[in-house]
UniProtKB/TrEMBL annotation:
It comes from Arenibacter arenosicollis. The keyword Transmembrane does not apply. Belongs to the sulfatase family. Coiled coil: none annotated. InterPro entries: Alkaline_phosphatase_core_sf, SGSH_C, Sulfatase_CS. This is Sulfatase. Residues 359-512 form the N-sulphoglucosamine sulphohydrolase C-terminal domain. Pfam families: SGSH_C. Keywords: Hydrolase. The lineage of its organism: Bacteria, Pseudomonadati, Bacteroidota, Flavobacteriia, Flavobacteriales. The keyword Hydrolase applies. Gene3D superfamilies: Alkaline Phosphatase, subunit A.
Amino acid sequence: MNRILFYLFFGGFFLLLTSCNEKVEEQISKKPNILFIMSDDHAYQAISAYDDQLINTPNIDRIAKEGMLFTNASVTNSICAPSRAVILTGKHSHINGKIDNISPFDTTNVTFPQLLQKAGYQTAMFGKLHFGNNPKGFDEFKILPGQGDYYNPRFITATGDTTVTGYVTDITTDLTLDWLKNRRDAKKPFMLMYLHKAPHRSWMPAPRHYKEFTKKNYPLPATLFDDYATRETTAGPAEMNILKHMTLRYDLKITDAVLEELKIEEHLGIGGLNKFNPEQRAEWDKVYGPINEAFKKEYSNMNDSTLMVWKYQRYMQDYLGTIAAVDENVGRVLDYLDNEGLAENTLVVYTSDQGFYLGEHGWFDKRFMYDESFKTPLLIKWPNVITPGTTEDEMVQNLDFAQTFLEVAGVKSPEDMQGKSLVPLLKVEKEKWDRDAVYYHYYEYPAEHAVKRHYGIATKEFKLIHFYYDVDVWELYDREKDPQELHNVFDDSDYAQVVSELKEKLNELRKKYKDSDSLSNQYIQLYKDKGLIEE
Ligand code: SGN
Ligand code: CA
């Protein structure tokens, strides 16, 4: 009797597993739609699915609730246009050639949208690309020129430019929904890139969020007053400290009149404020006027420490204010997919072009291989494939998107793409994921924010970084013991063995990805040729 029960139970369990797997395979074979949502500079610390201390983002969180939250997603080069080039080509910056924001993207590169378009996908892109040229492989695109504007933005289209009155996050979404509603061919699968400018500097929220966010006070990050000990020549010289480098006028919206009265001189202009029409300006002044008045009164009593805290709070109010609109608009698009019955067969990704410092190490901006800018948010939902509410801690990178989307669409990836499809991780039954280290290389120096050139390797336990060009400095972080990366233990004899093993592993990765000192030198020469650095 017991034996019969045993066979019945395990037989049933086996049948259930087989039918689950069949369902997953059936769904995968369906050629799903792909919706790729990316914002610009959106720190994972500012998504409540990761951390709810700063802001509530219920709509972005929905993607994790219905799908998967990646806790170890990183970029290969933490800066805007290079990250986008890596995403589109599936190749590291040193191979696709887009090492920084300065040079235009080489359009002879093959990108995954071109391959999907050839395979019968409809393709469209709306929002920020930041390439210096138009994207290839898209049936339709409306993109912002360069960084684009928060208010009344101009868009580049295949048939000419158009300027739209309003707020960029709302407009990018309107354009996206308009395409889905009116120009999508229901007979074909689609791949849609919906790319927000927000929350990029200079952090200008939508009018409906001015009041709520400027009233808030945020918890101070533990490393706000980092003194950069053990990182004196690398983190130390970076020009992205909130106290020293964040500007009152451009970043924190203190007016010329107030600055003049306080005898504060600043070189950066008024940014997006000059794009307002009179009605928009009036709405802005109603809320930001009193902030200016209060600052005028308080300024003379401030010391470095109180000014740092004041600046941090102002920074967070505006940065997070812009995210509120991103979250609402992501909700609009998800609702549309749900209501039209499209959600069932659509894979949705939410990510950022890189992470961002929200006061950690005293900083704003990104670029470093330290966690807050190296890691990036990643949430994916794919009904009937991903088990809702899953958390995934394997090491994945923006390098992996191209091959993931190609596999999802049943298209073979070109041999020279360098990532790895995430599909095995997305399936209910995980196949083996044999990556235990990732590679990183940042180039844009000398340049704004003064973050030195560096490359490195990260495993779950350690991070080894080499800063070069005008320094020759190695750093090692014990990620488990020192998650805030405050103690460079490269010279600590206890870690000698780790250093030697990681150096070897780093060399292997550099070989595998075809990076080398001679390539680094060629990219330095490029800066010399362009007159960006002196011979
Ligand atoms: C602008 C910003 C920088 C930022 C870069 C790159 N300065 O130059 O703070 O690091 O963009 O950002 S600003 O004065 O123009 O706002 S990226 O996301 O496009 O790479
Ligand atoms: Ca960016």
